[in-house]
Every structure is written in C-alpha cells, then in structure tokens.
Design goal:
The protein is an all-alpha fold. It has one helix and no strands. The N and C termini lie far apart (146 Å).
Length: 101
Amino acid sequence: MNKLFAVLVAVMFGLGSVAVFAADPASTDAAKTEVKADAKADKAKAAADAKADKAKAAADAKAAKAKARADAKAAKAEKAKAAADAKAEKAKAAADAKAEK
C-alpha cells in the first residue's frame, strides 16, 4: 500500500511538474502578446496625439490669419473714417469762411 501511495505521489508530482512546464511557455506567450498590444496601443496614441497637435497648429494658424485680416480691415476702416472726418471738417471750415464773407 505504501508503495502504491509513493508511486501515486510521484506520478502526481511528475504530472504537476509537466503541467507547470507546459503552462510556462503559454504564460510567456501571453506576456509577449500583452507587451506587443501595449506597444501597439502606445504607438497608436502617439500617432493620434501628433495628428491632434498638427490639426490644432493648423487651426491656430488659420485663426491668426483671420485675425490679421480683420485687424487690417479695421485699420482700413479707421483710416477711411479719419479721412472722411478731415474732409467734413475742411468742408465745414470752408462753409464757415464763406458765411463770414
């Protein structure tokens, strides 16, 4: 009976060892797969971030260009108003001078 028990324990231990060794490569493969998946996700995130940064830079440049155009238009309008005011002032002065005569 003891011999049977000893053989049974030895067989169970042996099968357990084989199962551990058999499972080890699988866990290594799973770890490698996980590392690859993480690296792929990091690469995708970096690409998305770069694309977002590029889009933001393009939008900022477009906004700056639009602001410059608006500022130039406002300056032109201000200049036209100043010219119109000067012309009106000159006409008023001429009218006042004519009225004095």
